[in-house]
Amino acid sequence: MKRIATIYAVNLNDWREGAGADMQRLLAFLPDEARSRAARHRSERDAERVIVSDALKRVTACLEKGLRLRNVEFARDGYGKPFLAGVPDCYFNVSHAKDWVVCAVGAGGPIGIDVEHIGRAEAEAAELCFTPRELTEWRRQPAERRDAFFFELWTLKESYSKAVGKGLSIGLSKLETIRHSSGIRIVHQGRIDPELHLQVVPFDPAYKLSVCMPLEEKAAVVRRFSPGGLLDALQSCSEAGD
Question: Per the confidence metrics, is the pTM higher than 0.70?
Answer without folding.
Answer: yes
